[in-house]
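Entry type: protein chain
Record version: 2
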Amino acid sequence: MSERDFSARSSNVSLLHLTKRFRSLDGSGEVTAVNDINLEIRAGELVTILGPSGCGKTTTLRMIAGFEYPTSGSIFIGGRDVAMIPPNKRGLSMVFQSYALFPHLSIYENVAYGLRVQKLPAQEIRERTERALELMQLTSMAKRFPSQVSGGQQQRIALARAIVIEPSVLLFDEPLSNLDAKLREYMRDELRKLQKRLGITSLYVTHDQSEAMAISDRVVIMKDGWIQQVGTPREIYAFPQSKFVADFMGKANFIKVQVLGIEGEAARIEIEGMRFTVPRAGKAAPRAGSALLVVRPEALRLLPLSSAQGSAALKGRIDRFTYFGNIARYEVSTENAPLLIETYNPEASFVFEEGAEVGIIIDFESARLLPAEEQEQIS
């Protein structure tokens, strides 16, 4: 079970017009959990499906795994349509939120379980199990039971058991949600390192935005069963295609503006009688009329009101100040919209108190435009 073995076995995954409907609880009709989605996952890629509870992300994962059959549509793994094939015939492994370890089996036996089910020769089972334990740094505790090790070590056991069968695709269903914050961050980084080393195609489901940003080659944002946007973490964060995506992926401010015109990628806008240029307005920018300027909290800068007089700055008042050490967070009221502003390394700059009148400078290089009325962008 070398790293080369995984790279060679990794498969691409294609979802074509995938739909899943369930009977409603009262039996009066059907509820659409996943609605006609299309997605291509390249071999060796780690893609995260991100969205709020009930968006369809776990149902999508369960259909790929074979635990749910689609109402319609196709699931291709390595070019083979597996939509109606049993889970054990798909060449996949899944890491669950609960780890699903056998408490009565040793760590060694937990990892070897899938190989024994396949009825492989004893020597091959021993060799592959030992390599998986070594890869996950579990060799020294192979004779212990799951209850005798920590949560992070249980997660490693679940990973070892998943990779020992050399799957073509690895599925993760919120695998870190049971860990405390510090351990979750550590295991997140370890998991990503392992996936990159092995080059195994991986699909990861989470509701944690920071987790998705940290580990993913690409992120899929879902809402109400629909795919809203697909892109790299940077593309999703810097170029959201809808208000929902902008607000869900990190924090965002929405400033009401008038679009005066579009020239190439740039837009000319007006805010409270002042005119500005947005150099990269984004694909969703309206060509004229009312719009929302999307600005991240770190792209706003505060000035004392006396210093802002005569400058192209919005005027506001500090309603709340929260100090986090490395970040100062301000909630600011303006005539246009309430704003959230974050200043990094606040000790190196002026700290504003609650009630202070301030000027607000916008970094238009990182700002984007969206239609004033919410319009979902379906990728």
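Comment: The chain has ten helices and 20 strands.
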